[in-house]
Amino acid sequence: MIIIDKNPTADTRTCDWSKVTKKQLLDSSIQHIEDVKTGLELFSKILVDIATRHDYDKITDIVQFHEDFKTGFKQTTWWDNHRKLSRHHINMPDGVPEDVNLLDVLEHIVDCVMAGMARSGQVYKLDLSDELLQGAFQNTVEYLKSQVEVVD
Questions:
Q1: Domain definitions of the chain by residue range
Q2: CA–CA separation, 67 and 44 (whole Å)
């Protein structure tokens, strides 16, 4: 949980701007910068966790992964389960989590670029629907809001 102090004096929409001193504005601005830093640090920590867990079932379930792989994925036991375990195959309808977020979008982009560049030296066209991206955006907003507590 991120705990932040109430801070209405750094925005003309939330205070009587004619009564805010330069010192108050400076203090409020410093606080806002620190609050944003804290929020971004939360996302940074989550991204590190995502990176650590990325495609981990390729290792923990190497037997089934190899079984599917050697059929050219005509057999999809591992692949079908992988999309349930992973959040980044959002280009496939059954790979989109209900609470898809922008961190899932970033993992998808990085996964596709790294795989494409390493395997063939190019990246196939990536395309996600506006509806998915707007949903990911709103879910990310709601997630961050749920992680913030404002105190007086």
A1: 1-53, 87-147
A2: 35
> Is 145 within 8 Å of 40 (Cβ atoms)?
no
Cβ of 65: how many Cβ atoms within 10 Å? Answer: 19
Question: Which of 114, 76, 69 shows the shortest CA–CA distance to 95?
Answer: 76
Q: Do the beta carbons of residue 127 and residue 105 sit within 8 Å? A: no
Taking the CA atoms of residue 83, residue 87, residue 91 and residue 94 in that order, the dihedral angle to the nearest 10 degrees is 50
Residue type, 106: L
| Counts of helices then strands in the chain (DSSP H, E) | 6, 2
Report how far residue 115's alpha carbon sits from residue 104's, in angstroms, rounded to the nearest whole number. Answer: 16
pLDDT at 89 over 90: yes
Q: What's the whole-model pTM score?
A: 0.92
Give the pLDDT confidence of 21-74 residue by residue, as tens digits: 999 999 999 999 999 999 999 999 999 999 999 999 999 999 999 999 999 999
According to the model, what pLDDT value does residue 105 have? 98
pLDDT in tens, 120-144: 999 999 999 999 999 999 999 999 9
Cα 91 from Cα 113, distance rounded (Å): 14
